[in-house]
Amino acid sequence: MTLEASPSSAPARMTAPQIITELPGPRARAMIARDAAVVSPSLTRAYPLVAESGRGYVVTDVDGNRFLDFAAGIAVCSTGHGHPDVVAAIKEQADRLIHIAATDFYEPRYLELTEHLARIAPFDEPARVFLTNSGTEAVEGAIKLARYHTHRPGLIAFEGAFHGRTMGALSLTNSKIKQRAGFGPLLPMVHHSSFPRVRAWREGSGGDGSAELEFLHKSILGRLLAPRDVAAIVIEPIQGEGGYFPAPAAFLRGLREICDEHGIMLIADEIQSGMGRTGRWWAIEHSGVEPDIVTTAKGIASGMPLGAFIARDSVMSWPPGAHGSTFAGNPVCAAAGAATLKLIEGGLIENAARMGARLRAGIERVAAEHGGVRDVRGMGLMIGVEFASHEAADAVEQAAFQRGLLVLECGEAAIRLCPPLIVDEEAVDTAVALFGEAMAAGVRPTEGVEEVGG
Ligand code: PLP
Fold first, then answer.
1. Which of the chain's termini has less CB crowding within 10 Å, N or C?
2. Which domains does the chain have, with CATH numbers?
3. What is the pLDDT confidence band of residue 16, given thresholds at 50, 70 and 90?
4. Residue 50, Cβ neighbours under 10 Å: how many?
5. From 1-15, 99-113, 200-214, 223-237, the region with the lowest mean pLDDT
6. How far is CA 174 from CA 133, 164, 177, 179, 378, in A?
């Protein structure tokens, strides 16, 4: 399917964002006050959006304001909001069977989805799949599998990594101190090595990750954690929460070599970067490197809670009872996942590559016009725009919201653009124009310019 060729299943067309109240509007303000009284204060709402409905790449708030959604619920709504095929799959499945527990029983939607995931796994060897309820649960499972398979305890992750918030995944997370503070002790024998945070303008001039590979060899594997004690090296092929930094291909190849030499599992965490977002099914495919285990979630089911870890057949050799999950791969979520994968395969991967190139060119253009941007980087529809300071990024994020564009921060001073994969030229061009306006309002033109090179 291409978007144009299948009008019956195409999402509703975009109309321009429309702000009709002050933001937040009166209904939003009232709900935010109620929310403040009962909801865990650990949540971090970036700006006061109170979402009521969504269609395609448009979200409408409780006061009737319409926003262009370039956040996609943190890179989740891959097929847009309320794609008719996904909604139909969810409704049909809810009518048929809501729950059965795939840990104990067989079920057709579970089978259909796992077969599809096994088919697209980023390695040559046959694959096996374990479905989960979330990204962090997928990472937990991948950690357990790597330990089980290698009989080793140690794990290596990277500075700036985000792998989730449950205790194993949190032990790998190295993004912001507030995510770890107060929760220790975490898993033992976990070490974080340097991640090559290559700015786009350094890509062709030494930003290949060789210094970081040497650090891993010498400082981590040479002094802290013997290779024979390492179960897995866990890496986001594009660091997400950490700032939308693509790992250089040479760096990923170097990790593969270390893993091959020492019998270490290479785990690619593609929870944010996978599912077609970068113009391939998996971001790691751009490097030609094959992992042993890959984790996915977010975009896999267009917003229904679902994740997976997928491993080489020879790696996922644990016995019945070694791992399970009551809700994971629930029939309704699995049906949404199966419908989502079909749509991604039917044209959205190519669309992500095309629209990603257009978006990046547009952002580079407005960045050059307005100044204040240190770097524009990423792949496909996973684009990071780095400013001179967190305050500058925050100001642009807030100004974008006021203009009807939803974006989210990441890293120390960046904004991520991760729209649904269904975006078209109209949405991309509108987003670029609004982002330019937000930059003009949010950043002083000279901010950051003197810092380029850092
Ligand atoms: N891994 C990566 C790369 C992520 O981006 C995230 C979420 O942002 C996670 C793991 C955790 O996923 P979840 O929030 O579904 O637990």
1. C
2. 3-82+349-452 (3.90.1150.10), 85-342 (3.40.640.10)
3. confident
4. 18
5. 1-15
6. 22, 10, 7, 8, 20
CA of 371 to the centre of ligand 1 (A): 32
The phi, psi pair for 198, rounded to 5°, reads -85, 120
As a whole number of angstroms, the distance between CA 12 and CA 56 comes to 6
Token pair in block for residue 302: 């267009």
Neighbours of 66 (CB within 10 A): 19
Which DSSP string do the residues of 257-273 spell out, in sequence order? HHHHHHT-EEEEE-TTT
- Average model confidence (pLDDT) for the chain? 94
- The one-letter code for the residue type at 16 is A
CA of 276 to the centre of ligand 1 (A): 16
Task: Among 76, 158, 162, 269, say which to mutate for ligand 1: greatest number of ligand atoms within 8 Å of CB.
Answer: 162
- Residues making up the chain, counted from first to last: 454
Q: Are 244 and 410 in contact (CB under 8 A)?
A: yes
The answer to whether the CB of 330 is under 6 A from ligand 1 is no
Rounded to whole angstroms, how far apart are CA atoms 333 and 444? Answer: 45
